[in-house]
Structures are given as C-alpha cells and as structure tokens.
Amino acid sequence: MAPHDDSTAKLAEETMVAETVSKPISTVVIIIAMQTEALPLVTKFNLVEDPNSVFPKGVPWVRYYGTYKDLNINIIWPGKDPASGVDSVGTVSASLVTYASIQALQPDLIINAGTAGGFKAKGAGIGDVYVASDVAFHDRRIPIPVFDLYGVCAKRAFSTPNLLKELNLKVGKLSTGDSLDMSPIDEKSITANDATVKDMEGAAVAYVTDLLSVPTIFVKAVTDIVDGDKPTAEEFLQNLIAVTAALDQAVTRVVEFVNGKCVAEL
C-alpha cells in the first residue's frame, strides 16, 4: 500500500472534523466546582451518582449521570478536598477533572457552569448570567517575552451565535485566577483582559478543552460585585443560594437548546 501523503492526511482530518460537528450531540459533560451549584441540576435532570467511578481510585471527584431527552448528561463535581473537607475549587482541580472526563466519557460538548464575580464598570449585576466570549488567566505572571502571553493564555470561547440569539443571554469576557479576592496587581491584569466576570476555573477548563478539541460553553452567574462596596467573600456567601438558582435555570435552558442539535447548529 502506498504511504499517505500530507494532502491525504489533511483531507482525512478535515473529513473527521466535519463529521464530528455535523452529527447530533449525544454526550454532554457539565463541570461544576461546588456541590451547592451542582445538586439542583442533578435533581432537575434526575441524575444518579455513579457507584463505579470512571475516575482513578482515590480521587474525590464525583460523577452524576443519566439520560435527559436525547442527551447523555454527566455532571462532574471535583468533590471535597480530603484534607480540608471543602469544595475542591480552583484551576488545578478544574483542569484535572476536565482532562479525566474527556478521556473517560468522550463528550461531544462540555459546559463549564458556575458562579462568578462581576464588574459593575462593565454593567454586571447580582444574578446576571453570562456566556463567556473569551477566557484568560489573570494571575499567571511570567514577565518574559512570549512567556507572558503563555501565562495569560487568552482564548476565544466556542462560538454559539444561535444559542445566544435564542436564549437572549448576556455575553462577556471571563478572567480566571486561583484567589477569590482581587489584589491590585490582579486588577491590572483583569482590566487588561477586558473582563466582565472573574472566576476560579474557566480558563483552566478552556486550556484542556482547547488542547483536546472539545467544544465548550462557559455559563457564569454573578454572586458578587468585585468593584462594589461590599467585601467579596461576604457578598458571595450572601447571594450564593439565590444566584445558583439563576445559574441552574440558565444551564437548563442551554441543555434544552442543545438537545437534538449538532455542534455546527449552536
């Protein structure tokens, strides 16, 4: 058999990509950092906890799964940190569970859902829900040419024009870091990222899904106003339950829209 030349390999790759984006979405993975955010959706979609974990032995990661209409729904929650007993928030857990979920479940689409801080200077208010148009890090500071760009790791999110039009959701740029508060140097980076919302997971999820070519939608609900008058932690805890309800409603609408469509139709 004659060896494939570069043009044959490229054609095969393009054919595979075309088939992927044109087939109906079947398996959806929803990655959520906090149990409080995850459980209402588990109930909504009538999911059950996987008794035989698809993940490596010893990790605290939890998978809830089931069928909703034409979709195989998987909600992945990183679980409780074994040492402290709190939700495993942040970029490290987010990137690990994203990679492991893609390897184990081969999803057609990932939704990273969660709460976030918002900036009133960009028009954000408590309870607003945004779909991210762009994602970037604000606390990976590497002041060396080119390494600085790698640190920010700015990426365009997967484009979903039909979803945005149909659901009338707000759109804004998302900036990610591993701290709930905002230092002056973080603020400078967030401003450079032109962010409307900030979280602790999104850009980490985006890094992995971009590497593995999995379309990803970022849905973020505002619990606190970062450039407001109230302390961030206090406002976050005060609004978490109510804003989670808005988040879950938005994610449900996204799932309803996705059902029966292919990636190219989003």
Automatic annotation (TrEMBL):
<dbReference type="GO" id="GO:0009116">
    <property type="term" value="P:nucleoside metabolic process"/>
</dbReference>
<dbReference type="InterPro" id="IPR000845">
    <property type="entry name" value="Nucleoside_phosphorylase_d"/>
</dbReference>
<dbReference type="GO" id="GO:0008930">
    <property type="term" value="F:methylthioadenosine nucleosidase activity"/>
</dbReference>
<protein>
    <recommendedName>
        <fullName>Nucleoside phosphorylase domain-containing protein</fullName>
    </recommendedName>
</protein>
<dbReference type="Pfam" id="PF01048">
    <property type="entry name" value="PNP_UDP_1"/>
</dbReference>
<feature type="domain" description="Nucleoside phosphorylase">
    <location>
        <begin position="27"/>
        <end position="256"/>
    </location>
</feature>
<dbReference type="InterPro" id="IPR044580">
    <property type="entry name" value="MTAN"/>
</dbReference>
<dbReference type="GO" id="GO:0019509">
    <property type="term" value="P:L-methionine salvage from methylthioadenosine"/>
</dbReference>
<dbReference type="InterPro" id="IPR035994">
    <property type="entry name" value="Nucleoside_phosphorylase_sf"/>
</dbReference>
